[in-house]
Design a protein that fits this description.
single chain, mainly alpha, 3-stranded antiparallel sheet, 21 helices, 70% helix
Length: 445
């Protein structure tokens, strides 16, 4: 697939200003003498390497969460967690994404997006490696937060990198990394229990083994650590005019845009559903009488639905003037899945997993709309940080509330009713966010 995307680039693409002399370095990129900013000439080889890096990074944006969901009961027993504390644990991902994700654009301007993503992979590797052996609930939470910090900055910067380096292929590139993200999510959900059993049945090595994937991803991002700016991309507060001169632009006041707020709330509600699913869905099936291995497979089915759909939906979305109809279809699938889970959790388990898997594809749709609702790379950076950070703040109470309701009601009826109720406003704000307008236009008005 990566070869197909790069096949039209049979000759070298130069995305920096031309110069009489260039020199090459060990990464295979050509650097223009005297360029202090770290901007480099772009070749077919580096394009393919960046594609590989994007795919490998995306593979690591969810296994830290879904691997824990598959072994949540064992981790609870091993660390002596109550249902409420386990609910707090499932709320840690959106909390970390909100707190650390907002720093990603500033870090990218200072160090370059490649360096920040590479550092994010290092943080994920370290956190996943030490969290099973950190000792006690506090140490487990701290190591998890370290891994999630790396995921948070990479989450925010993926749309930014796509907009900067592939401005003419936002839909296909968003689909590519969304598909890789969904694949990594589903693999972790399906394989964690069998891998744990193969490693002796202890949950610690079953969680620690997922540190291998981000360690591999680090290697692919090392060549891009020195790139402080994307080729031919103006700085966040500048725009290049027709004369070729760089003109100062006023800062984008993102909070004045109704579309930005609608997209942030949509992002938050879909994230609420996603993290409830990743944190609790396997337990819901297990409490209904499904075996641990089958429950993990059902969670994997929910996640694996995003592999093909995460590639298709962004491509379809970029061809439509209004993405609202897609939002409504995904929401109806979610309502049907929750209804089935409430009335016949075991008898129709595979059907409900399929429907909820389709509904979970609101995530790649939200990322696609981030790239479509802003005109410039700088606008996408601000919108991505605002929508994701605000959205993840909104999603924090959801998984925690599910844990509290489950513990105090003694069943899953109330939590499932909560999930269904949240789907309605998600459809409303998603429809609003899908309108054909940009945050720059709204902020200017």
């Amino acid at each position: 697939m990566m070869g197909l995307m790069a096949s039209d680039e049979t000759r070298t693409e130069t995305r920096t200003e031309t110069s009489a002399e260039t020199r090459t370095d060990g990464s295979g990129m050509r650097e223009t003498p005297g360029e202090a900013s770290g901007t480099r000439a772009w070749t077919t080889w580096t394009t393919r390497l960046l594609l590989l890096g994007i795919v490998l990074a995306a593979l690591n944006l969810r296994p830290a969460i879904t691997s824990l969901g598959a072994l949540l009961e064992e981790v609870r027993d091993g660390l002596g967690m109550s249902g409420s504390v386990a609910g707090l644990l499932t709320s840690v991902p959106p909390l970390c994404f909100a707190v650390f994700g907002v720093t990603a654009p500033r870090l990218a301007r200072r160090f370059g997006p490649g360096a920040v993503v590479c550092a994010g992979m290092v943080a994920i590797t370290t956190g996943l490696l030490i969290r099973p052996y950190a000792g006690g609930t506090a140490g487990f939470l701290a190591a998890t937060a370290l891994a999630l910090m790396g995921i948070a900055v990479s989450n925010v910067l993926m749309p930014v990198i796509v907009k900067r380096y592939f401005p003419d292929r936002v839909g296909s590139m968003t689909g590519l990394y969304s598909m890789a993200l969904a694949f990594g999510t589903s693999i972790a959900a399906a394989a964690t229990v069998p891998v744990t059993n193969a490693l002796g049945g202890h949950w610690q090595p079953g969680l620690a083994v997922w540190a291998v994937l981000p360690a591999v991803a680090i290697v692919s991002w090392i060549p891009f650590v020195r790139d402080r700016k994307a080729p031919s991309t103006p700085s966040p507060r500048q725009e290049t005019g027709q004369s070729g001169q760089t003109a100062e632009q006023p800062p984008l006041r993102i909070t004045r845009s109704r579309t930005a707020w609608a997209l942030a709330v949509f992002f938050g509600l879909q994230a609420t559903a996603a993290y409830i699913t990743m944190g609790w869905m396997a337990q819901i099936f297990r409490d209904s009488g499904v075996s641990a291995g089958t429950a993990g497979l059902l969670l994997a089915v929910i996640m694996v639905m995003g592999v093909p759909l995460a590639f298709v939906i962004p491509r379809v979305a970029t061809r439509l003037p209004h993405q609202g109809p897609i939002v409504l279809v995904l929401g109806v699938c979610g309502l049907a899945g929750y209804a089935g889970l409430y009335f016949a959790p075991v008898g129709g388990a595979w059907a409900w997993a399929l429907l909820l898997g389709v509904s979970n594809c609101a995530f790649p749709l939200a990322l696609t709309m981030v790239g479509m609702r802003a005109k410039t790379g700088a606008g996408v950076a601000q919108l991505s940080a605002f929508a994701q950070s605000t959205g993840y703040l909104i999603s924090i109470p959801g998984p925690l509330l599910v844990g509290v309701l489950y513990q105090h009601s003694g069943g899953w009826g109330l939590p499932i009713a909560l999930m269904s109720a949240l789907m309605v406003p998600q459809m409303v704000v998603g429809f609003m966010a899908g309108r054909d307008r940009t945050v720059e236009e709204e902020a200017a008005r």
